[in-house]
């Protein structure tokens, strides 16, 4: 079983600055981390490998040379090897161009070893779209199953996998043929402490780095900024609302006023659950 | 070449014959865009034995409904649904196509956008059109929510977006509206499907209740600790409300994630929303600002939560909330009748 996990390096969105000229992130302003959902995706691959007792886990990332850091982090969690595709030609990609570049890299990886399963994070905390996973699946013509909350069982003879997929009001129990692509959120597993040998391996690990020239049959206009149909028109801070009335007086008086205001909404209150 | 692309479409998500609320909201939002562009508004409905839903779609604002009814479409699956949607989009060429940002809507839109090789804006919260260029202006929170970005798709059609539930408003239902129903055939076979939905398990936990609740009592870090947060539960219980909280509260382990309100939690629009000990960070506000009647209690008079509150009380929650509970109990007695709590 060969599992490939797509991992992205993202700025920690808690601390972030925006370049007002280009309307893009000033990536230097925030520490770069492994997208938290992708950490769960790698962990799930490790779980699956344990569950079926064999397998190879590769991770794939597209980004600047520093993105090797998230590959090393993935090795710590338990991945066996990692690929980074890094080239100016990929820069400025939206989700359509990103899924194109990643699918080309996956095609190359599958020539080295056939891929049985691709796992992506539910979404990246910077782009925050969740569109790259299904995009890759379409391009590779494998079924996407998004929002997977549990990988229950593999049937290697039938080449099927049993999954639970979250929907608006519950979950679907799905049987999918593999190869297929899963996207996973945080509830699928807990990130485990990395065992020492993984840490040592990660520290020494040198990811395989490819440029656009290492990929085959690439239609260059579909890459990067050029291959991206969406553009950021403008950025603005949301208009500040007015706000209502503040009640005055001491605590008792404020409470009395509020109760009076809610009198005519009594029908809504005290309803049975 | 874009002259061929006309009309605004809304994907109508139905689950077991019931239309998702967000689809009706999108008909309301889509109606405005269609009127501005002087084009029809269409609903796109896929499923099995779902034709009887068409009048409802029209009564909420659609001029026409495209329906694909097929056994393979019984439960949502990317493979089968995207085939139907792409068939329609290629044949009738809409200029704008909106989907609810639900698990299924996002999944479908992502696959369709890839095959149609067009742009898709995720999790839109504001929609408008630039009439001169017939450009959809889809705005969404960016970079952790501190700023809004307007995303455009100039060179590809249809222009697509997923839209967050509960931010747009559905129109008043009008049964006198008339519209056209267009049925479309699709050739799909179950044998060709690589995924099977074996069963659907409905979840009737608190999460569903939070989005459905008429009255929500939400607490923030200002409640001090888990002990202090009990006051939130107590108040909620007294008035028959559902409990919500901020992300910080969820991270502290005072509440499960299902009860988080905000950008990375639920967007809700209850009739009454209590925000107690909540500062009102933008990421929280986007999840509750469309509530009808908002009451904020915070000891900091400059807390941004007061900017969205209908009424604010500047004070210590530890003093105010126990008094509120007491007064509500009095009010409830006046109301009389049997009350039971679950
Ligand atoms: C990418 C991203 C996504 C996020 N998503 C969400 C989300 O979905 N939902 C969400 O809520 N947050 C979200 N956040 C976090 C958000 O930015 C805030 O940090 C969070 O909402 C603050 O929670 P709080 O109001 O409980 O805490 P604080 O900001 O610490 O506010 C506590 C408030 O309580 C008041 N207070 C203190 N003591 C008392 C007292 N005794 N009586 C009355 N008032 C008192 C204080 O004056 C203060 O205003 C997100 C952040 C990021 C970066
Ligand atoms: N540049 C990238 N390199 C590798 N994987 C990516 C990249 N961008 C997105 N992904 C994958 O796609 C998922 C969803 O990303 P997004 O659609 O941007 O929210 C991520 O969690 C990753 O698994």
From TrEMBL, chain A:
<dbReference type="Pfam" id="PF01012">
    <property type="entry name" value="ETF"/>
</dbReference>
<dbReference type="InterPro" id="IPR033948">
    <property type="entry name" value="ETF_beta_N"/>
</dbReference>
<dbReference type="InterPro" id="IPR014729">
    <property type="entry name" value="Rossmann-like_a/b/a_fold"/>
</dbReference>
<feature type="domain" description="Electron transfer flavoprotein alpha/beta-subunit N-terminal">
    <location>
        <begin position="22"/>
        <end position="219"/>
    </location>
</feature>
<dbReference type="InterPro" id="IPR012255">
    <property type="entry name" value="ETF_b"/>
</dbReference>
<protein>
    <recommendedName>
        <fullName>Electron transfer flavoprotein small subunit</fullName>
    </recommendedName>
</protein>
<dbReference type="InterPro" id="IPR014730">
    <property type="entry name" value="ETF_a/b_N"/>
</dbReference>
UniProtKB/TrEMBL annotation, chain B:
<dbReference type="InterPro" id="IPR001308">
    <property type="entry name" value="ETF_a/FixB"/>
</dbReference>
<dbReference type="InterPro" id="IPR014729">
    <property type="entry name" value="Rossmann-like_a/b/a_fold"/>
</dbReference>
<protein>
    <submittedName>
        <fullName>Electron transfer flavoprotein subunit alpha/FixB family protein</fullName>
    </submittedName>
</protein>
<comment type="similarity">
    <text>Belongs to the ETF alpha-subunit/FixB family.</text>
</comment>
<dbReference type="InterPro" id="IPR014730">
    <property type="entry name" value="ETF_a/b_N"/>
</dbReference>
<dbReference type="InterPro" id="IPR029035">
    <property type="entry name" value="DHS-like_NAD/FAD-binding_dom"/>
</dbReference>
<feature type="domain" description="Electron transfer flavoprotein alpha/beta-subunit N-terminal">
    <location>
        <begin position="8"/>
        <end position="197"/>
    </location>
</feature>
<dbReference type="InterPro" id="IPR014731">
    <property type="entry name" value="ETF_asu_C"/>
</dbReference>
<dbReference type="InterPro" id="IPR033947">
    <property type="entry name" value="ETF_alpha_N"/>
</dbReference>
<dbReference type="Pfam" id="PF00766">
    <property type="entry name" value="ETF_alpha"/>
</dbReference>
<dbReference type="Pfam" id="PF01012">
    <property type="entry name" value="ETF"/>
</dbReference>
């Amino acid at each position: 079983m060969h599992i490939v996990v797509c991992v992205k390096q993202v700025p920690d969105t808690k601390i972030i600055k925006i370049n007002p000229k280009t309307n893009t992130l000033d990536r230097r302003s925030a520490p770069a981390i492994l997208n938290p959902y992708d950490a769960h995706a790698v962990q799930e691959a490790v779980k699956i490998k344990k569950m079926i007792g064999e397998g190879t886990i590769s991770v794939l990332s597209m980004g600047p040379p520093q993105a090797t850091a998230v590959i090393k982090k993935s090795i710590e969690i338990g991945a066996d090897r990692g690929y980074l595709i890094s080239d100016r030609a990929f820069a400025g990609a939206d989700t359509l161009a990103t899924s194109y570049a990643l699918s080309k890299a996956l095609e190359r990886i599958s020539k080295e070893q056939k891929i049985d399963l691709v796992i992506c994070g539910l979404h990246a905390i910077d782009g925050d779209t969740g569109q790259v996973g299904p995009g890759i699946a379409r391009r590779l013509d494998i079924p996407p199953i998004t929002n997977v909350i549990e990988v229950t069982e593999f049937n290697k003879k039938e080449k099927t996998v049993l999954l639970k997929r979250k929907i608006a009001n519950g979950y679907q129990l799905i049987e999918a043929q593999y190869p297929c692509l899963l996207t996973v959120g945080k509830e699928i597993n807990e990130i485990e402490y990395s065992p020492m040998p993984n840490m040592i391996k990660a520290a020494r690990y040198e990811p395989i780095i490819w440029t656009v020239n290492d990929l085959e049959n690439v239609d260059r206009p579909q890459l990067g900024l050029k291959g991206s149909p969406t553009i950021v028109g403008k950025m603005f801070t949301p208009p500040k609302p007015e706000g209502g009335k503040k009640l005055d007086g001491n605590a008792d008086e404020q409470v009395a006023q509020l109760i009076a205001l809610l009198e005519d909404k009594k029908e809504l209150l005290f309803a049975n659950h | 070449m874009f002259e061929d692309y006309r009309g605004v479409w809304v994907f109508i998500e139905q689950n077991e014959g019931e239309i998702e609320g967000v689809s009706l909201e999108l008909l309301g939002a889509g109606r405005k865009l269609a009127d501005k562009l002087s084009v029809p508004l269409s609903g796109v409905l896929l499923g099995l034995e779902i034709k009887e839903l068409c009048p409802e779609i029209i009564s909420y604002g659609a001029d026409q409904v495209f329906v694909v009814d097929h056994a393979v479409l019984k439960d949502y699956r990317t493979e089968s649904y995207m085939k139907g949607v792409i068939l329609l989009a290629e044949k009738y060429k809409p200029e704008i196509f909106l989907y609810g940002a639900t698990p299924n809507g996002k999944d479908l839109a992502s696959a369709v956008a890839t095959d149609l090789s067009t742009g898709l804006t995720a999790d839109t919260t504001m929609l408008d059109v630039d009439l001169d260029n017939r450009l959809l202006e889809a705005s969404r929170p960016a970079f952790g929510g501190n700023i809004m970005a307007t995303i455009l798709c100039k060179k590809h059609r249809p222009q697509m977006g997923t839209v967050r539930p509960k931010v747009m408003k559905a129109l008043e239902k009008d049964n006198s509206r008339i519209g056209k129903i267009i049925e479309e055939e699709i050739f799909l076979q179950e044998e060709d499907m690589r995924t099977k939905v074996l069963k659907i398990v409905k979840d009737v936990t608190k999460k569903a209740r939070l989005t459905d609740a008429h009255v929500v009592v939400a607490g923030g870090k200002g409640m001090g600790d888990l002990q202090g947060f009990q006051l939130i539960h107590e108040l909620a219980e007294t008035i028959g409300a559902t409990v919500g909280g901020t992300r910080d509260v969820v991270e502290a382990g005072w509440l499960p994630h299902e009860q988080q309100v905000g950008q990375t939690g639920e967007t809700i629009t209850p009739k009454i929303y209590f925000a107690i000990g909540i500062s009102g960070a933008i990421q929280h506000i986007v999840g509750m600002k469309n509530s009808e009647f908002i009451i904020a209690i915070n000891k900091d008079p400059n807390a941004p939560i007061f900017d969205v509150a209908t009424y604010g009380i500047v004070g210590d929650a530890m003093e105010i909330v126990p008094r509120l509970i007491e007064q509500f109990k009095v009010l409830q007695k006046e109301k009389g009748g049997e009350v039971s709590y679950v």
